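If your schedule permits, I should be very grateful for your opinion on a structural question. I have a record of one protein: its chain in single-letter code and its fold written as discrete structure tokens. Kindly check, if you would, that the fold set down in the tokens agrees with what the sequence suggests. I remain grateful for any guidance, and I place the record below:

***
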Amino acid sequence: MNTHDMSHIVTEVADGVQRIEIRRPEKKNALTQAMYAGMAKALAEAERDRAVRVILIHGQPQIFTSGNDIADFLQHPEAATEDAPVFQFLRNLMYAKKPVLAAVTGAAIGIGTTLLLHCDYVIAGQGAEFAMPFVNLALCPEAGSSLLLPLLVGQKRASELLLFGDKFSAEEALSMGLINSVVADVDVGTHAMAKARTLAQKPRAALLATKSLLKAKLVPQIEKAMIEEAHEFGDRLASAESKEALTAFLEKRRPDYSRFQ
């Protein structure tokens, strides 16, 4: 077993499974550029390490992630570019050859939900909550979700989730096929590790070939969608509407868009 701490991203390899833990509970696991860089590095290391057969991403018992750290995001306008750490993370996740599992407890907001679209198996606790409130922050979808979400849940449901940005429960996520399983919150970690170890014991070549056959045909389309989203996201982030929305979020008030109409 070996462990490594990379600025709120903690990794551990044991029994053929690399855990990537988001560990910033005092800030609801809000993701900074440094944390995205840490996760991108962890995924790259997992791909190179022959001892790793399966990757498991998880947060804390009370929170998966609240999404982007808004203050950090505003301080780094380059965060919306294609070379930013967030996109390095998403590309590494998208191109991962080894199975990627996710264990969700508590809230999974924004990219906390959209990153699950790239995972091969997702288990969530009964109290987990999901949301993609990009429009509510005067932004647009990211992580290839404008392509993957309609393919997964259907056009009408995807439109509802992305246009309204409302929260939805683990049971709703299960019913629409966004996740694979719902268990008691206290059992999520145990069940997720059991599933990861089960995969880690399967024939390596067959496991990799099966994932490749399932995913490879979609990857060029996903990358194209991610690039298009990144350009639009950057434009939205630079807009007066988004600055008002994000500032209002930090100031804990309702945004006022009246002067932009």
In short: The chain has one domain: 2-186+203-213.
